[in-house]
Amino acid sequence: MCGICGIIPYSPKPIYKHQIEKMLESIRHRGPDDFGFYIEDQALLAHARLSIIDLEASKQPMSDPTGRFTLVFNGEIYNYIEIREELISKGVKFFTTGDTEVLLNAFIEWDRDCLLKLNGMFAFAIWDSYEKRLFLARDRMGQKPLFYALVNNNFYFASELCAFKELDIEFHLDERSICEYLEYGFIKSPNTIFK
After folding, report:
1. 114 labelled catalytic
2. Between 144 and 54, where is the model more confident?
3. What backbone torsions phi and psi does residue 138 show, to the nearest 5 degrees?
4. 3-class DSSP state for residue 44?
């Protein structure tokens, strides 16, 4: 298990660096082995790592050699070796042996269609610094959590809801979600216990 979080601010302000640090600190228990930040005016990404595959080389956030794309990723891509081989046949060069770099290059090669190739459990975010575009995805069954909120035109995402408490955002319980939880034992996506 790892933890990811990020902020896409409406306008650059120094406060966001402090916010992303607090958000990551709240989910550090998800990844006690390492942590890292990617910070620019239009995007702030953070990652707490639990090392399982490629213990030394697959540090995150991970950027491609051009610096255009940056990934934060929680999960495991079960078929990453097959995807890696397909990408190598297309001329992609790899510098690590883990699934993180495979996922990053799969997105670069196929954009959102990379999801059609993935077999695994995952939640990830990729920032395109040229187009100023964030791509978020999670596995089909939602094994790896991914929460997001749009507050005051700022977009926030995280692996756990507790990361949002660090932002001084006021949350209100959603009574319909509570009823749904009591009836079914879970809350259907994309809803949460909060409005």
Report:
1. no
2. 144
3. -140, 165
4. strand
**From CA 102, how far away is CA 159, in angstroms rounded?**
21
Half-sphere exposure of 26 (CA within 13 A, CB side): 18
Tens-place pLDDT, residues 4-53 = 999 999 887 888 999 999 999 999 999 878 889 999 999 999 999 876 65
Q: Which of 120, 107, 51, 45 is nearest to 80 (CA)?
A: 120
By three-state DSSP, how is residue 156 classified? strand
The amino acid that residue 58 corresponds to is S
Say what the pLDDT of residue 57 is. Answer: 67
Residue owning tokens 């994309």: 190
Distances (CA, A) of 158 to 28, 120, 142: 12, 19, 14
How many residues are present in the chain?
195
Question: Distances in Å between the alpha carbon of 66 and those of 98, 105, 111, 185?
Answer: 19, 12, 16, 46
Backbone dihedral angles phi then psi of residue 86, each to the nearest 5 degrees: -65, -40
Residue-level pLDDT at 191 = 84
Q: How far is CA 194 from the centre of its chain?
A: 21
